[in-house]
Amino acid sequence: MTKILMTSVRDDEQPAIKAFAKEHEIEIVTTPKLIDDAVDLTADVDGLVIQQRSKVDPAVYPQLKANGIKQIATRTAGFDMIDLAAAKANDLTVTNVPAYSPRSVAEHALMQIFRLLRKSYRFDHQVATNDYRWFSDEQALEIHTATIGIIGVGRIGGTLAKLLNALGATVLGFDTQPRDEMKAIVEYTSKEDLLKRADVVSLHVDLNPTSEGLLTAEDFALMKPTAGLVNASRGPVVNTADLIHALKAGTIAAAALDTVEGEGAVFQTDRRERGLADEPQIQALHDLDNVILTPHIAFFTNLAVKNMVDFALTDVLTILNGQESPHTVSA
């Protein structure tokens, strides 16, 4: 019987994992550990599925090869935690799940856009201190009067554009490869023009050498001082130090961040006792009253979790059967 190891498994994934194992008559071994700490378990399995944001330990790749593993499936869209060159050197095929549920992230971004337009972050902080007043500069924009800029109009950004269009918002888009089918609802323009005109800018790009540091101080200076930023893509897309300065200086009004640089040391950890002193940039964002932080949970819906499990495991079986997965990624 085919046997597959899944690492970093959460309780909420178990129903989908058990259903897949039953349907396909395979055995799936799960562990909450990262692959770095569970590599010994691969000696007795045929395939591997991982999930993590931290870099895979370089020592893992030759160990996987020595244990007869032929592939690594990450049940995430991002695959920057995997050294593709090291994987290739050890004859490991790498797959990802590029579209587990574009709607999940798009809906999260839409929620945050609403929160920025309605300035809920201001009222959250006020009410937390028992201040129930409201002020002239807290007047909101109705979404059908707002202009929303989407950087990266792909699967997720395109889904968000459709939701915004249905609500009557003006939608601007910047993408290196504009799609003809989106031009009826998205006004494609330059990044600079989008930043100047948008009431909220929402980021939906992959992390790669061209997108790292995509927004810096120079870009924030182009934005309206009343504008907000949503980042539900990857942390390094934004220069965090520049963003913190822009938020403190009033260069932009607010930010809703589901992902930040250095999040691997903080997100999915309990910091109630320890605090954030060892992560000063995240501490600075946490302390600002014009920042909404969520711990990389935009994807976290019923359908997305099931799809991440199903697609990743299907890729493993495809490769073990000697076929090529459409989700193979390479350097």
From TrEMBL:
Transmembrane segments: none annotated. The keyword Nuclease does not apply. Belongs to the D-isomer specific 2-hydroxyacid dehydrogenase family. InterPro entries: D-isomer_2_OHA_DH_cat_dom, D-isomer_DH_CS1, D-isomer_DH_NAD-bd, D-LDH-like, NAD(P)-bd_dom_sf. Keywords: NAD, Oxidoreductase. It comes from Limosilactobacillus pontis. Residues 6-329 form the D-isomer specific 2-hydroxyacid dehydrogenase catalytic domain. It comes from the Bacteria. Pfam families: 2-Hacid_dh (PF00389), 2-Hacid_dh_C (PF02826). Residues 110-298 form the D-isomer specific 2-hydroxyacid dehydrogenase NAD-binding domain. PROSITE patterns: D_2_HYDROXYACID_DH_1. The lineage of its organism: Bacteria, Bacillati, Bacillota, Bacilli, Lactobacillales. Gene3D superfamilies: NAD(P)-binding Rossmann-like Domain. This is D-2-hydroxyacid dehydrogenase.
